[in-house]
Amino acid sequence: MSSAQDQTRDIIDLIWDREKYYIVSACESAPSREDLLAFAARYGVTFPEDYLAHASNYFGGLYLVVNEEIWPRHKAGDVGPFWSFLYGVFTHALSDEAPEWMQLGPVAEEFREMGHQVVPFLKIIGDADVYCFDANGSIQRWLHEEDAFEPYEGGFFDLLRQEFLELDERRKRKEAGGETSP
User: Fold this and answer.
1) In this structure, which of 74, 104, 158, 172 has its CB flanked by the most CB atoms within 10 Å?
2) Strand duo 21-24 + 130-133: pairing
C-alpha cells in the first residue's frame, strides 16, 4: 500500500506570515491512519492517500484564518461583497478535542441524514458550500443552494493549495482597502 507524503507544511509556507494569519492544528491529537480508514468505511466513502497523509499528521484538522486586526469579523446584519465574508479555511478533524463545528463526525452524520453518501472535509469560512469525498475518493463540492454536487478535478493537496492561495489574495485585497460594503 503506497503512502503519500504530507505536503501541508509546504502549502502553508506559500502564504504564511505570523503577523497576518492565525493557525491551529491537531498536533499530537491527530488520528491514526487506521482510525481514519475505519471512519471512512463506516460512512461508505474512500479517503485518498493525500488526504490520509494530511489528516493523520501534525497539521491535520487545520484551522487557518486571517488575523482579526487585518480582517475584522462581520457582525449579524452586516452586508458586503461575498468575498469579504471568506476570511479562513479549515479541514474537519477526527478529534473530540476540536470544536464541534469542526469535527468530522457530526458533519458526516448531517450529510448522511440528508441522504448523501459523502464526508465533508474542507470548508471555507463564510461559504455554505463544502468539499466532500465520495465513495470513490473523488472530491465533490456540495452546492448548498441546489443540494447538488460538482466534481473537483484535482487531489486534496491541489485543493488545499488553491484555497490557501485564494485566501491570501482576498487578504491582500482586504489590506488594500477592497470594498467591504455595497
Assistant:
1) 104
2) unpaired
3-state class (DSSP) for residue 113: helix
The whole-angstrom separation of Cα 174 and Cα 70 is 8
In a domain, 107, yes or no: yes
Measured CA to CA, the distance from residue 4 to residue 164 in angstroms comes to 20
Total number of domains in the chain: 1
Q: pTM (2 decimals)?
A: 0.93
Is the torsion defined by CA of 74, 60, 17, 169 positive or negative?
negative
Q: 120's torsion region: left (phi>0), alpha (psi -120 to 50) or beta? A: beta
pLDDT digits (tens, 9 = 90+) for 142-162: 999 999 999 999 999 999 999
- Asked if residue 116 belongs to a domain, the reply is yes
Residue 22 in 3-state DSSP?
A: strand
Residue 182 lies in a domain: no
Taking the alpha carbons of 101, 141, 50, 86 in that order, is the dihedral positive or negative? negative
Q: What is the pLDDT of residue 2?
A: 54
Q: Where residue 87 sits, what CATH number does that domain have?
A: 3.40.1580.10
User: Residue 123 is inside which H or E element, if any?
Assistant: strand 119-125
